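Quick entry between incubations.
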Amino acid sequence: MESQDIKKVGLKVTLPRLRILQLLENSKQRHMSAEDVYKALLDTGKDVGLATVYRVLTQFETAGLVIRHRFEYTLSVFELNEGRHHDHLLCVKCGRIIEFVDEVIEERQRAIAQRYGFKITEHCLYLYGICIKCAETDSQSIGNGSL
Amino acid sequence: MESQDIKKVGLKVTLPRLRILQLLENSKQRHMSAEDVYKALLDTGKDVGLATVYRVLTQFETAGLVIRHRFEYTLSVFELNEGRHHDHLLCVKCGRIIEFVDEVIEERQRAIAQRYGFKITEHCLYLYGICIKCAETDSQSIGNGSL
DNA sequence: ATGTATGCAAAACATTTGCACCTGG
DNA sequence: CCAGGTGCAAATGTTTTGCATACAT
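Done. Structure below.
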């Protein structure tokens, strides 16, 4: 019962929340954008506001009920192309960016693509986390939060 | 000489292009957003339009002079959280999404994070490419597009 | 009842585009 | 000179926010 899931995470059981969760559970489409959800609800005669869809999905994400993927983007950053591919580690606190290359990962990616018959055109691997510097600074103020 | 690079890729050597390329080469900041570039130029008294910065950076990207990274995003898609982490293969032609998990990659990510002293909070690995179906369809010409 | 949620319209943002003017070769 | 490039302002597309109204507990 979906209403239990909603209650469990501390949210009021409202019609929009119930409908959105049910839709996600019953849709054959596993990945839906906010717009997809919005249209699907309207199509079934369930009136809802797009802003509500965004709010509810974000709350569900915070609550761990859904996962948000970001397959398309806006803010881009540019760097000079110096001819060597690399991936990135990004500090979510201070914005520090570290570049790395790992041949094992590159190799596995090729293997996975082959297994599924994909011809890779590009890939992106971003590891988000907290860098040493920020971890140090953090621990002296906010208690400790090791992990 | 930057003007040579610009000429080499078939673009006219104009003031904005020259300045943007020089900035990217001389900036201590390796990764800059379009806004960063725009502001940096204005700060040094070089007038330029933001639209031009976008156009030039996109041209440079097409020409292979710069690499564009997309660390932040807009269009999000949501899926139910069923508790098991996975990464994604995405077909850029038909939008097909395949989920996969590779323990070797997961392990390497942990190793890399540790090497740099990062505490990973999340990561995203998206492999973009062309799936078998689209590859087949493609090779027999341009006009038929099943699916 | 009352604190939350909702819906709408408007704002926010990064980015793109239309168009008249300017400029490099 | 003239195709191509630029700057501005307006448009775009996604997401967020302010606010008055409606609803769950």
